[in-house]
Amino acid sequence: MAETAQLSDEFIRQLSAVGEVDVLVGIPTFNNKDTIERVVRAVQIGLTKYFHRDRCVLINPDGGSTDGTPDIFKNASVSDFEIMLTSNPLRTFHRVSAPYHGIPGKETALRTLFVAADLLRAKACAILSPTSLSVTPEWVESLVRPAYRENFDFVTPLYQRQKFDGLLVKGLLSPVVRAAYGARVREPVASDLGLSGKLARHLLDKKIWDEDMTTFGLEIWMTTTAIVDGFKIAESFLGPRIQPTPQFGQDLPGTIRQVVGALFKCLEMHESYWPAHTGSQALPTFGFQYDVALEPLKLSTKSILDNFRSNIDQLVPVLESILTPATLADVQKMIALPDRQFRCPDELWVKTIYEFAAAYHHSAINRDHLLQALTPLYRARVSSFILENAKAPVSRFDQRFEELGQEFERQKSYLIDRWNAKAGGDR
Amino acid sequence: MQSDPLWYKDAVIYELHVRAFYDSDGDGAGEFKGLTYKLDYLKDLGVSAVWLLPFYPSPWRDDGYDISDYTGVHPAYGTIDDFKSFLDEAHRRDIRVVTELVLNHTSDQHPWFQQARSSRDNPRRDWYVWSESPDRYKDARIIFTDTEQSNWAWDMSSKSYYWHRFFSHQPDLNYDNPAVREEMWNVMRFWLEMGVDGLRLDAVPYLVERDGTSCENLPETHDVLKFLRHRLDENFPDKMFLAEANQWPQDVRAYFGSADECHMAFHFPLMPRMFMAIKLEDRKPLVDVLQRTPAIPPACQWGIFLRNHDELTLEMVTMDERDYMYDEFAKDARAKLNIGIRRRLAPLMESDRRRIELLNGLLMSLPGTPIIYYGDEIGMGDNIYLGDRNGVRTPMQWNGGWNAGFSGADPERLYSALISNPLYGYQVVNVESQRRSEHSLLSWMKQLIRVRKSTRVFSRGTMEMLHPLNHRVLAYVREFEGEKILIVSNLSSQAQAAELDLRRWKGTVPIEMFGGSPFPRIGDLPYLLTLGPYHFYWFRLRQL
Amino acid sequence: MKDVVLRSLNETFSKFGDMLLQFLPHLFVMLIIFVLGWFVAIILKFLTRRIFAFVSVNRLSKDAGISQILSKADLPPAGDLFSSLVFWVVWFGFLLIGVDALGVPELQLEVGKFFLFLPQIFVALLVLFGGLLAANFFSRAALLAAVNANLPSARVISGFVRFIIILLAVAMALEQIALARSTVLITFAIAFGAIMLALAIAFGSGGRDAAHRMLDRMFPPAEPKKEEERAKQEEISPL
Fold first, then answer.
1. C143: which chain A residues are within 8 Å (Cβ-Cβ)?
2. A166: which chain C residues are within 8 Å (Cβ-Cβ)?
């Protein structure tokens, strides 16, 4: 049974008033006053439109916002139901505020939601990011339905992304998950997802909650744990994804440290699972996929190419402790290429990532430092990718990523070898 | 009988079908003599008024609502004297009698119509609504959708169309004709002078038609009602008009006028929402409809009910609500009729005693005069294999013996088959068995009615809705002349806790009305109540 | 005359013989202690090596960057080195005990002083080891941080950090063994102060722009400058 010691009395009171539910939707927030209202209204309409006979609740775990986000959450409403819908909703719409104290992190927010799902015996849950500018009521249906009506346990989203958006996910996270865990999850770090009540309860019982997994780590952990523990996973198409000006742009090293670190940590956690599997399966997909003409991003090649070369150069002493001499030589050769010919081939990229993963596992150097050392290499890879595909159509992209995924799968045995090699064996 | 112009406010009305109640002459169908015998039962039950379905001469193609003689009694039910004797006996027991007045239409067998159709020049021609083409009044909806395709029917004899909002054998009277109004007033006077206490005005929204309208609730219709009411007030001050207007609350409001039309009107939209609230386990449908119910003149009263002789109408709900009700309550498609569900209370509640009690508790505590349908006080079942709405008009089950004690005739001669299945059959569900047990539904209903009548708060009081956080608990306070009653009902199948904000009544002690136990005094803190599944409390809030 | 010389020689030799006879047992004891000590030292060296292998000290020292230093100096790896050190220290200790057994009071005094000195050396070595570890860690951290923040001459910064920390560690170690205490202290203070001053001047005047940019990054202004804006536009979201 779930630990409820951390839930406030008020929260428990509100939960008891709600009672058993069929669908639970959660929006974790921290200072999101600009975008939260839209998301709440979309959820309200979505629930009324698609789940009007079912018992639903919308919960907002808030990590101590100082900009009035919880009040906006409470008061956001759809005043003209008749315009949006054909009828008045059958049931009372439940909205529960759950402020929590302590570090405003995803762990506590998600834990709160899972505990609520457990207490309310929810059959299906959906978690939505409070910052999506492109959220629609249909997102609720897309994320909940596979879990609620089709017996899936974990529903990851599929976005219609801008051309070079999300390269870390597409170029590193997703293919590694694909190769290691055998499931082609295209968005393993999504902040919009759906779960069955069963999975929520299962995750709640795991010991992860006491460790420090940080924001993105938790999503990767959920995805990989769902795969490893045999839950049914599906993808659901949501549509275009537009976030407010990216916050990560100014902290790429931090992002990489968190996300890739979490990925490697998961590989360690599940090291009894992934070496045994080969190949990968595509996941069942829900929703009608469509292409939307999105604004292309403006990029200047010069500024992309400048940075990483000197960076990599200066990091050679650190990289020596991580990469094999052969790989390091290849990297140095690569950065010596002139601008026009600059390419980071898939093979090299995959090898690099796998060696990093193995080095992480062996703690060849301090893990934090190891992940930081990855940043310029990632930049190199991104530059290469952009140069190569600057004028390519979107369909070519899908093909490229498929090729990349296959390369990751092809070299999986290399990863296993490096992973199991004795510490210091490369010296 | 004591004279009391507001008797209908404090009444508990019992709706019954003379044919279905008790057969004393062995012809297989009930009549007035038999009904008279059973008046003691009704007295014992505690009801204070009886509403009789039409008993007038009629070809019986719409179970008596197609009338062919307004001032007679159908021979199958007895004679006028039988009726008079029934009336006297009822009054002797302080039971008032409400009969039907089908204003809107007659049977096509009525002499008036026979005359009207015989030729275009007949003086009665104008008593009905005729047209050369069926294109007039295009915007009027069809009510009996299962059987009728149009509101016009072709008359062979006079080669023209006549207007009928209901069955085609029920031509509508023409209320634009003053003669019609006068004649209907005469009919009314006939019965009221005899001693009848109230008249249910059947199908009252449809009296007048006008082109380009829905032909419902027209101002001219209200004028007719005002006219009749005026005459009534002049001659019979303590008689009552009960309007049957299946409309949204704000449209029904018009039938009260400014206390110059009908005294009472049925609250149709409330009824399906009571069922919905229990199924959804959410008070929202009830709270919504009560909020949308407009205030009515002080002398007027809503008539509330759970079931009646018609199908459980779903006309006054949204499409989503209708689909929900069909899916939950009419899983067998046979149970659907027109736009409704033709089942009795007990089968709708899956013979769950607790839910039946809860609904009756709501019926007796919500604002309005409660109307009980015959047989529901013992939890009678229904027969959806009978045609039309006959499944809910089966013989009253008096005991477990011959013909359920309804009639001494051969079973094959009965006007309708008895309910005889092992769950609802007369062997199991009957008055005699339930009379013998203090814990039967019948005994409980008697107690419920007794408690209801013990105070005027229910019948005349205001209502203030409370909003506990727990949406499965419905709570409201009724108040009248300083007396306050708190009603709390658990709409869900699971035990619930609810915290009520009762600070306005701080300092009072709630006394539970069925058992008399005092509960803790109300203080500043939210008042915590716990309720079992489908359980309800009635508390008298006393200053002690 | 001959007799006197002979008798004197005889006396001297017999005295010497006596002294020798008196001394020999001590000598034997000393030799025995030497041999015993050798055996104990060997055993301890073996044990130490085993323990260190168990605790994988080699990896730790690799982390501290010691291995690199050692290999550059053509010395054996840290674990082996340390176990050799243990051997020598233990045997030397026994040697000293043996010398002490000779019973020469002046020597005994010196031996005593030496034994008192031993813990200091140990602590100093520890401080040095810790300092080397820290220097490696922080210099690498600085390198990575500087590289990822796109600061120029990241390597210089990293080397500088390493230098400072090692300097600090050496100074602490020297102070620990009380070797020219005041000298070391003053020298260190002067050197450190000078470096800091130089840095301040360099940073303040020469690195004005870089400093400005770095500060901007740490405390972003309300309206980003044009180039910042351009940089932001071009930064694509990785997630």
1. 314-315, 317-318
2. 237-239
Specify the CATH number of the domain B7-104+174-453.
3.20.20.80
Q: Mind telling me the catalytic residues of B?
A: 202, 244
| Collapsed DSSP state (helix, strand, coil) of residue C181 | helix
In chain B, count of helices (H) and strands (E)? 16, 21
* Chains contacting chain C through 3 or more C-beta pairs under 8 A: A
3-class SS of residue A339: helix
CB contact under 8 A, A248 and C237: yes
**Structure tokens given for C191:** 């050197």
Residue A133 lies in a domain: yes
C236 and A250 within 8 Å at the Cβ level: the answer is: no
Best probe of the B interface among A15, A22, A84, A90, by most B CBs < 10 A, is A90
Do at least 3 CB pairs under 8 Å connect B with A?
yes
For residue range B495-525, list pLDDT tens digits in order. 999 999 999 999 999 999 999 999 999 999 9
Q: What domain range includes position A103?
A: 9-286
Residue B165, SS3 per DSSP: coil
Same domain, yes or no: A122 and A192 = yes
Which subunits count as partners of chain A given 3+ CB pairs below 8 Å? B, C
Do A311 and A254 reside in the same domain of the chain?
no
When CB atoms are compared, the residue of B288, B321, B469 closest to A17 is: B469
**Spans of chain A below 70 pLDDT:** 1-6, 78-87, 102-104, 208-216, 245-250, 292-307, 422-427
Q: Is C78 in contact with C70 (CB distance < 8 Å)?
A: yes
Test A375 with C59 for CB contact under 8 angstroms: no
Residue B50 is encoded by which pair of tokens? 């009886």
Q: How confident is the model at residue B75 (pLDDT cuts 50, 70, 90)?
A: very high
How far, in Å, CA of A303 to CA of C58, rounded? 43
Would you say residue A296 lies in a domain?
Answer: no
Q: How far apart are CA B311 and CA B472, in angstroms?
A: 27
The verdict on a CB contact (< 8 Å) between C239 and A248 is yes
Nearest to A36 by CA among A26, A51, A23, A46: A26
Point out the domain boundary residue: A286, A318, A350.
Answer: A286
CATH 2.60.40.1180 corresponds to the domain B459-543: yes
Describe chain C by its helix, strand, coil percentages, rounded to 5: 85, 0, 15
Q: Are A268 and A371 in contact (CB under 8 A)?
A: no
ipTM of the complex as predicted: 0.76
Name the domain count of chain A: 2
| C234 vs A contacts (CB less than 8 Å) | 297-300, 303-304
Query: Distance (Å) from the C-alpha of residue B469 to the closest C-alpha of chain A?
Result: 6
Fold of C119-218: Helix Hairpins (1.10.287)
Q: What is the pLDDT of residues A310-351, one digit of tens each?
A: 778 778 888 888 888 899 898 888 888 887 778 888 999 999
Q: How far apart are the two ends of chain B, measured CA to CA in Å?
A: 37
More confident site: C227 or B47: B47
Any long-range contacts for A312-318 (C-beta under 8 Å, 24+ apart)?
A: A312/A376, A312/A377, A312/A380, A314/C143, A314/C147, A314/C154, A314/C155, A314/C158, A315/A373, A315/A376, A315/C143, A315/C144, A315/C147, A317/C143, A318/A365, A318/A369, A318/A373, A318/C140, A318/C143, A318/C144
